[in-house]
Amino acid sequence: MIDREGNVIVAIVKGTHRISTSRVAEAMGVSGESLRMAKPEECWK
Fold it and tell me: What is the pTM of this model?
């Protein structure tokens, strides 16, 4: 995931689980709209 400022957020989960940007945002104390899934090209920078 990436926040509005371009910071990378990594969440490690088991292969059988999925990550929720809203739950990660809640855990971080930020709004859900401030996080988004990173595009493949952003992951390789």
Answer: 0.68
The domain locations on the chain are 2-43
- Can you tell me whether residue 2 is helix, strand or coil? strand
Amino acid at 10: V
Length of the chain: 45
Write the DSSP string, 18-30.
---HHHHHHHHTS
| 29-41 confidence digits (pLDDT tens) | 988 788 999 998 8
**Are 27 and 19 a contacting pair, CB within 8 Å?**
no
